Amino acid sequence: xxxxxxARQRQMVRLVRLVAGGATLIRDGGDGATVLVGRAGEAGRPxxxxxPDAACALGLLVRSGDTLRATPQARAFLRRALLSAxxxxxxxxxxxxxxxxxxxxxxQSVRVNLAESxxxxxxxxxxxxxxxxxxxxxxxxxxxxxxxxTRGQLQPQLTMRYEPRLAGKSKGAGGVADLCDSAxxxxxxxxxxxxxxxxxxxxxxxxxxxxxKGLETVERERQWPVRSAKLxxxxxxxxxxxxxxxxxTRARRTAWGDDGFRPDRTAAVTRRPAAGR
Length: 277
Description:
Layout: H1 2-20, E1 25-28, E2 34-38, E3 45-48, H2 51-57, E4 61-64, E5 67-70, H3 72-91, E6 96-103, E7 106-113, H4 118-122, H5 136-151, H6 181-197, H7 202-210, H8 215-222, H9 229-244, H10 265-268
Helix pairs in contact: 1-3, 5-6, 5-7, 5-9, 6-9, 7-9
């Protein structure tokens, strides 16, 4: 039944494309089961006899006698159908999963390609005990760093820029004068995050979360031992998570020996009871 529905959908798309492309005449196919749709003077293409009526019922076509005409809804229908077909083809080479991710400060349900980012692939790694190697807090910290890095337009540009440049702007691509306020703010957040992680761990966080290098590539470039990059990355993301969500601070109690502490001598001196009492 599912295959019959998919075949009927393909036939509907073909019919709507024919009519939208100028095939407006419909004639009897001669076999009782099909009709011919084509331009004047052409043989036409056979389609199921009930298909034009179904397209008209959906509001995709309008029929007047032997003439068919596409409605404005037909173009939107074709765009959705072609986009769905392209997505299905691309999904054959992807590892798609529906996840809740932070988007512009709010968590939303999005489709994530786990085969695209090394950080997404690491989200499925587990310890020998079965516990996830990266917890949700550390993973969200890495994704937030990547989002700010992208929003700040810090990726290396490998293609030529063809847009016209106005006089008075700073020279070179990616100048601060060319950025909007949100991109400048994102660059500031990336700078603060790198400082919070520290110089020892910030490099591996940028390589994997932002430049999306694989663990093996990072270990080879930095001449690290095998399976050490993921340990360094986890330490970096834990520090980054504390930067994004600092732990609550407890009220500090004054103790003896602290700078500025002076005991109240009057409270320490006990008065002797008066004689005769």
